[in-house]
Amino acid sequence: MSIIKFDKKLINQAEVARRLEISKSYVSMLLKGDRKNTEMLNKINQIVKESLESKAA
Questions:
Q1: 26-53 residues labelled b (16+ CB within 10 A) or e (exposed)
Q2: Rounded Cα gap, residues 44 and 8, in angstroms
Q3: What's the sign of the alpha-carbon dihedral 34, 49, 51, 42?
Q4: What are the distances in angstroms from CA 27 to CA 3, 6, 56, 57?
Q5: Measured distance CA(21)–CA(40) in Å, rounded
Q6: pTM score, two decimals?
Q7: How many angstroms separate the CA atoms of 20 and 41, rounded?
Q8: Longest Cα–Cα distance in the chain
């Protein structure tokens, strides 16, 4: 899976970490590709997608 980038105005890594109950540093490592966890990346993608949808509404 490729590196995920998202608009920090919509949601930040701290909020993603809070929602997933993981550390901010682990979120950072996942997003940079330093750690591989497809399940967690899919969850991050879903959170970002939900944030985009709620901002668009």
A1: bbeebbeeeeeeeebbebbeebbeebee
A2: 13
A3: negative
A4: 12, 13, 25, 27
A5: 11
A6: 0.81
A7: 11
A8: 34
Closest C-alpha among 51, 54, 42 to residue 15:
51
How is residue 13 written in tokens? 């890594």
CB 10 within 8 A of CB 55: yes
> What is the per-residue pLDDT across 32-41, written as a single tens digit (0 to 9) for each?
999 999 999 9
- Chain segment 12-30, per-residue pLDDT in tens: 999 999 999 999 999 999 9
* CB-CB contact of 44 with 18 (8 Å): no
Tell me how far apart the alpha carbons of residues 22 and 28 are, in angstroms, rounded to a whole number. 11
* Tokens of residue 16, six digits: 């993603």
